[in-house]
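Worked example

This section walks through a single chain of length 503. The input is the sequence exactly as stored; nothing has been trimmed or padded.
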Amino acid sequence: MATNTARREPYIGEKRNFKREGYGVYVYENQYFRYEGEWKNGKKHGHGKLLMKDGTYYEGQFVNGEINGHGFKYFSFSHCKYTGQFLDGEMHGYGVMQYKDGSIYEGHWHKNKKQGFGVLRTSSKAVYEGTFSGHQRNGEGSQTYDNGDRYEGYWVMDKRHGHGELYCADFSYYVGQFAEDMFHGEGKMQHASGMLYFGQWLHGFPSRLATKLKLIVEESPLVIRQGQPFKIAVKCLDDEDNEVEEDQGREIQVMAGFKYIPPKQGSVLFDMIEDVEEKPIPTPFGYEVVSYPLTDQLSEEEVTAEDDKGEKSARDDDGEGEGGDIAEAGEGEEEGGKEVTGLSMEDGTATDLMQPPEPAASPSQDPANTELATEGTGNPCAITPVETTPLPPPVSTRRTEGGYVEWNNLQLSPPPPLYRPFVALDEDKKSNKKLSLKDKFGEYVLMVQDVTNPPFLGTRLEPVFLMLKLKRPKKIIVKKPKWDTQRHIVAAMQARYSSGGDP
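Given that input, the structure is written out below as tokens.
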């Protein structure tokens, strides 16, 4: 029994002289392609639409059976849309490609690849304008990034390579050589933090990069006196301990600290600082510290006072030795003098440092002040309020020059009221005996740290620490004339006669 198989005509449309001519629809034998459009001499020619079974299609100009001229192509797999010039079925010439992620390329194409000048917008802010080769950024061009950075220079195989300029959104900029998308070669960077580096770069980093700080002092441990200025210097070194002179503008901070003593739970101090406790700073000495006032700006009054003290104690300094402080104290008591000292943990406990000066003697204790007391407020027992002196400003940060920075006038300031470590020591005073000078060594610590902001190349140098040995301040003997009873009686009688009293 014979079966009749009906074969569908592949072409439906106009013909002339037995050739496809005019408008017609043709379905290819493999059933994958379908053409709808104009024909001439049996070939696709003019405007037409070529559809593929996967959903991809082209609509535009055909010339002698080939896709040539201006047209539109939709790619079903990538959902990209191209509008522009074609040559022999390939994107060739000027065209615009819209990608699925929203990116848009406008420019020249060569055999389905971006080639020549074009503009690639990958987001509302990220834009590249320049030359392409083989679908990649290549040659001269500028790139604006999503974060606001902008690069102008040369590219090789889609990477920054050659001379270029990078301007960052934080106002940092680099001008110099690039390789493989990194700073490489000679270049200059002006960082947003104020740092400046000019020289050779290797794989994104300066060829001579500071990796640590070194604290330069006259002696170690540093021995200082309360109220007396001292100086320090800081150098920036590399891993081989060589000074990095190319390091310019790094911001360095110096501060002092005192050994942190955790308050006992339930104590007055614990209740006071429970919610506002300052975070202790770890040190390499096995304990933590809290900041202690340090200044490099002395007021004129303080400077004058120090000068006066220096003149008065010149004689004592000549004979000062290892135990000179104690000797001076004994000598002062024998001569009936009065000692004037600065604040120092070595002179006593925390209570000694925090208590205000003792009030002046009452008229009953000092006959010489009888007349002054009666001419006052009328209350001989009244205590004159103690004037409070504001804390001096902290040490200002400084920037490196040639990998070096120094401070020449540092000074430990008196502690602020209710300074936490001293209060804690005061609470332990009842149960602990007074600490010796030897025990006090190391309680004061000098800290130097890199506070460059923002950090240079994303990192800061590790801080360095130095123990301070605080010595007793120089004793100043203020001599008073010995009490002369007869002289004061004569003066009192003369004052009475001059006022018209009876002899």
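What to look for: The first strand starts at residue 11 and ends at 16.
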